[in-house]
Amino acid sequence: MLVTGLLLSITITRSQSYTGYLADNYSGVHGVLSNPASIADSRLKLDINLIGTSLFFGNDYIGINLSDAFKDFDETFDNAKKEPSDSNFLSSNIDVLGPSVMFGLNDKSSIAIFTRARMFFNINDVNGNTLEREGGYNEDEDFFIDESNVSGALNLWSELGATYARTLLDQEQHFLKGGITAKLLVGFHNAYIKGSDVTVNYEADSRLATTTGTLVHGQDVSGDRADFSFDGAFGIGTDIGLIYEWRPNHEEYKTLDKDGKTIINKGVNKYKLKFGVSITDIGKIKNNDGEQGSYNLNTTQSIDNFEGDDLKDALNDNFELTSPLTKSANSALPTALHTNMDWNINSKFYVNLNTDFSLVHRNNLNTNSVRNSLSISPRYERTWFSINSPMSLVQDIGLQWGLGFRAGPIYIGSGSVMTNLLGQTSKSLDLYAGLKIPVYQNKLRDKDQDGITDKEDGCPDTPGPVENSGCPWDDTDQDGIYDKDDQCPNEAGPKENNGCPWKDSDGDGVLDKDDQCPEEIGKPENKGCPDTDNDGILDKDDRCPKIAGPKENKGCPDTDGDTLVDIDDACPKIAGPVENNGCPVVTEEVQKQLNNYAKTILFDTGKSTIKPESLSVMVDIIQILNEYPNAKFMVEGHTDSVGSNATNQNLSERRANAVREFLVNEGIAQNRLTSVGYGEDKPIASNNTRSGRKQNRRVEINLIK
Questions:
Q1: Is the CB of residue 350 less than 8 Å from the CB of residue 342?
Q2: So what's the pLDDT on residue 68?
Q3: Would you list the domain boundaries of the chain?
């Protein structure tokens, strides 16, 4: 019959293969099936999967008691609880992971190569009453079937996949890794339907069946494909994923080698919380050798027309095409979003929360889609053994409770075994099992907790620094200071003195540790420091350690009492203002008096020789200069205009220098005096008169400001 053909030609899927196992940190190559980032920073150096299979069947129509199957298998389905509705679904999934390998390229990157065969079967919105009577319709009785908008798809294909994953961020407690998988897809078989307002009304008296609605049907023309030829069906698929790990105790997983280089302990899980997100099965399979037809079902005909026909023949022989046959629709992969959170309670116990959401509409043409699910799974995990017990809430199926374990190369489990064993009715069955060859990362041990791995530690049972290959330093003199830090390793001494006994370098009876002047002999009451001038101020604090002075002057005297101590006073014996460095200031009156004296200095005619009668004047000048010891003066020579200019210039220079030399010889510092001759250039009176010329023949001594 038509309805029989419909149901037997259609397929569906479930959410996730290998339920509970993929969260295991030692699942290796299997991890890429749900998140390609999982193999970066893996607990395995190498993982070779030999064979693994995951099977699933689920529905919301029939629930069986698994215990009945062990009593009388023939009665299992007779006693089953059925819940027909207008939109029941059936689903199945077979996922075979063939020879596959995963290995690390370096500290940050890993790759995986895998082979995989998959079958997805789903039928949606099927009338459960049709299933209720399927195989039991009596042709002698009237019946009516309303399938409305039934849809479904069957796809069988293989995958050759390559995954690359690497660490993206490793910064203290924050760790992020990402991965991508590229898959070559080869289709073996596909068939699909999508109906609209499909009904069947059968009248037993006339044996006529009236059908209504439209139906789209497609499948590969040659049936099951037996080779990997790209002429039939092929495509490209992609998976992408990210995983973030929070590692608050990241420093605990770092050890050192004998050279002090940091080594990360790759054999242990470092996270407290792990968050993953991925999108899998992005892509389509291009069906090159398939046909698709859209059929008008609105007709009445004898039921005998359908005897022995499969769905394709029944449609072509008995119904009208609404348009010419076209190429089959591409098979859309069951694209899904996966999120995962893993809580590391301690080093052995974990709790995992996983969600799977379909990203494609289940009623799209030739489309397989996962059923949304939420699962929480406690897990005990060690390197060679783990056990998990997932509890899942699957869309339209309900709560499922499973159990799985891994022991070295063997893994086996089910996402619903506990529900099936303990429950009265089971609407899904699933099982996974496989065999692999895992090669685990080495766990770095540090028994003495000195931060150096035992393999590199020269004294693995006794803590010691890396500088000494993990062994403790010697302490020959037993003073509590290691020989490497002890400046006197054979003689006990305090830590404050670098392991040496205290000395008295200056021999004044005060130990260096208490002696504020360890290189100078001093008195104990002065903390080992001298006070040479006995003014009560220690030499180290005394600005004038050899001359007694008051404390307020920091041990220096102030002889002239002008508030500047002698060592800062340019004129320590003559009081003067601070702004003039303690020396008296040359006033205008003093300057005038000085020049009055200088103008009376007499020279031999036409010469620079000072006449003896001017000696008293020179003495007066010297007395004035001595009263201003820091003042500097210019000795200027001038002449009248009698004679040549050159002669006068030379004479003025010689007379000025003669006065300067006289003063220097009498004790005036030569750096205080400068001489210059102006000749006849600076007259102070007229050279036309005798008295004027006399005034112009003069010497001046002026303050240099």
A1: yes
A2: 65
A3: 2-440, 503-557, 588-703
Distance CA 229, CA 176 (A): 40
Q: Which of 188-202, 298-312, 314-328 has the lowest mean pLDDT?
A: 298-312
What are phi and psi for residue 539, nearest 5 degrees?
Answer: -55, -35
Instruction: For residues 182 and 188, give the distance between their C-alpha atoms in angstroms, rounded to a whole number.
Output: 19
Mean predicted confidence (pLDDT) in 321-346: 93
Collect all residues with Cβ–Cβ distance below 8 Å to 649 and sequence separation of at least 6.
Answer: 677, 678, 679, 680
Residues 297, 300, 301, 306, CA torsion sign? positive
pLDDT tens digits, residue range 550-577? 877 777 887 777 777 777 767 887 877 8
- Residue 564 structure tokens: 């500047």
User: What is the distance between the alpha carbons of residues 458 and 31, in angstroms, rounded to a whole number?
Assistant: 39
Query: 496 in helix, strand or coil?
Result: helix
Question: What six digits make up the tokens of 502?
Answer: 């205290």
Asked if residues 495 and 513 have their Cβ atoms less than 8 Å apart, the reply is no
Q: What's the CATH number of domain 588-703, 1.20.810.10, 3.30.1330.60, 3.30.70.120, 3.40.1170.60? A: 3.30.1330.60
| 385 within 8 A of 3, measured Cβ to Cβ | no
Tens of pLDDT along 220-252?
Answer: 875 444 444 555 789 999 999 999 999 999 888
* Tokens 């203002």, residue located: 577
> Do 510 and 524 touch, CB atoms closer than 8 A?
yes
Identify the weakest region by mean pLDDT among 178-182, 392-396, 670-674.
392-396
Of how many residues is the chain composed?
705
| pLDDT band of 336, cuts 50, 70, 90 | very high
> Which spans in 543-599 are helix H?
588-598
Residue 194 tokens read as: 């999508």
In contact, 180 and 240? CB cutoff 8 Å: yes
Is there a contact between 297 and 215 (Cβ–Cβ < 8 Å)?
A: yes
Band of residue 306 on the pLDDT scale cut at 50, 70, 90: confident
Nearest in space to 187 (alpha carbons), one of 211, 222, 213: 222
CATH topology of domain 2-440: Porin (2.40.160)
Which residues are CB-contacts of 310 (< 8 A; sequence separation ≥ 6)? 5, 9
Residue 529 above 70 pLDDT? yes
CA 428 to chain centre: 44
Residue type, 520: E
Q: What is the pLDDT of residues 627-681, one digit of tens each?
A: 888 889 999 999 999 989 999 999 999 999 999 999 999 999 999 999 999 999 9
What's the Cα-to-Cα distance from 560 to each of 135, 183, 474, 650, rounded to whole Å? 135, 103, 67, 44
CB-facing half-sphere around the CA of 241: CA atoms within 13 A: 32
What is the spatial distance between Cα 468 and Cα 452, in angstroms, rounded to a whole number? Answer: 11
Q: What is the DSSP letter of 6?
A: H
With b for 16 or more beta-carbon neighbours within 10 A and e for fewer, the 390-419 pattern comes to: bbbebbebbebbbbbbbeeeebbbbbbbbb
β-pair type (673-679, 633-638): parallel
Q: How confident is the model at residue 71 (pLDDT cuts 50, 70, 90)?
A: low
Q: What is the dihedral of CA 575, 579, 585, 588, to 10 degrees?
A: -150
